[in-house]
Amino acid sequence: MTNDNDNFMKWSRRDMLRGLAGIPILGSVWFAGARVTGNAKRERQLLLETLNIKASPPPPTGPMSGDPVRIGIVGFGIRGEQLCRALGYATTDWLKDMKESSEKNPNDSRLRDFLAQENLNIKINAVCDIFDYRAQRVVDSFTSDDNKVQRFLTYKELIHSKRVDAIVIATPDHWHAPIALEAIAAGVHVYIEKPMTHNVTETYTLREALQANPKVVFQLGHQHRQTQSFLTAQDIIAKKVLGHVSLITTNTNRNDDNGAWQYDIHPDASPKTIDWNQFIGNAPMEEFNLEHFFRWRKWWAYGSGLSGDLLSHDYDRLNCVLKMGIPDSVMTSGGIYTHRDGRNVPDVLQVNMEYQDFSTGTSQPEGKEKGMTFVYSATLGNQFDRPTYLMGHDGTMELGNAVTVYADARSSKYADLIKEKRIDPSEPIYVYDPSVNQTDAVTSATAKYFANKGLLYTYRDGKRVDPTFLHMREWLSCIRNGGTPSCGIKEGFEEAISSHMAGLSYKRGRRIQWDREAGKIIALPGEDLDAILTDTKPKV
């Protein structure tokens, strides 16, 4: 280990200037562990140089010039509408509501942020939604003199219409893969919401389809890959600041109807305005049911529960930092404890993912440290904020829209600095907060949850930016200029398999294992993994 104490003694004006040059201009980076003395500032700068953490954004994506990319929207529910806004298309009623909200609350910047977005040079000219009201909103809001939006009654008609170059899929989970496969086969680019697939077989089939059609640009909707704090966390891991990370804890806490998927039921909804048979698709046939249509996330037949809907987000945001991939095994427990309303997906979930050989590097003797546990816990009956922690031998990182790093009192790497009282383990050695001097208006508990996860906004050049906008811009840049999306089929495959392992473990009440050599989930004799995942009966 480098003698950091000697480094402090050799500090010079030239060293200080070099250290200052490495400090990020954007956001707030600071060190609170040094004693408040005349040397504190110098010690802070030296420590920042020693850590050498880079809080810098990724290289910019390419220009949005050329002919407009023609985009079709498949599914215009809550998420579909959000994705359209990220593309620069807002409904007339949303614009009206935001104008009124900003007039009442000057700190509500949602309309200003939307209007300030870069023009992505696209045209949303096609929509497929099986609820007449939603489809008509797209047609009425997005049609202009130079862009007539056409409604299609089926996704196949839209894909093969020759009107679109790309599609955005924001449907219930059980439709993700079938629609994506149709588009890929037709050479149409795909942006798809998480989870990538609804069962195990679809996950392999989708990967094979993209391998056979390499010109199709595929992006999975994990927009936190654009969030500044996660990009900074990647550098912290790469620089081995934490040492060997043996435990990760991350969580979902919600305690309102919206967070528990109790979405509003629209008064215009009826068998006359909804294509029920098309909604059912490959799911078991049910009689027309507004609960199932609007609150589909509550049933395994259409959704993926906490494992696919929310664990998938937390898994991927840690996978983008650590690159840990698919776990060796998963153990899941939980149940329906807070919302006994007929749903069959759990509202409390505890997931342990084991990585037997994973390591982020060590400051101890080689071979002493190996392996990691990823713990995800969720409740839809309490909203107490629990941060995400990455816990290493040398330090702990708290990860959200900001990044905070603490040295561990028993660290080998920082032992000399702790002994000399140059680092206090009770105070952070590094803090990166890109939101300093920003006023953020979150309007609900669910919004706060997403904001703390880095899913609602991030920062570029000192300005607040929607990470979904950045994620879709990256996808469009790859379509126009080439390149590889940050959340393509490799990342999507890992997300889907890991989420499905958690769902299977919950359903079967046992450990689910991954055969790394064969590249498949280990099934017991007679088990049909896909049938287990989508089974609507109570777990065994």
Describe the structure.
The chain has helices spanning 4-9, 13-21, 40-51, 78-86, 92-104, 110-116, 132-142, 155-159, 176-185, 200-212, 228-238, 276-280, 290-294, 305-322, 415-419, 445-452, 467-481, 489-508, 529-534, and strands spanning 28-30, 69-74, 122-128, 150-151, 166-169, 189-192, 218-220, 245-253, 329-335, 348-355, 372-379, 388-392, 395-399, 403-407, 430-433, 458-460, 463-465, 512-515, 520-521. The chain is globular and about 75 Å long. With 540 residues, it is α/β, with parallel strands linked by helices. 35% of the residues lie in helices and 17% in strands. The strands form three sheets. Strands 1-15-14-13-12-8-11-10-9-18-19 form an eleven-stranded mixed sheet. Strands 4-3-2-5-6-7 form a six-stranded parallel sheet, sandwiched between helices. Helix 10 links the parallel strand 6 and strand 7 (218-220).
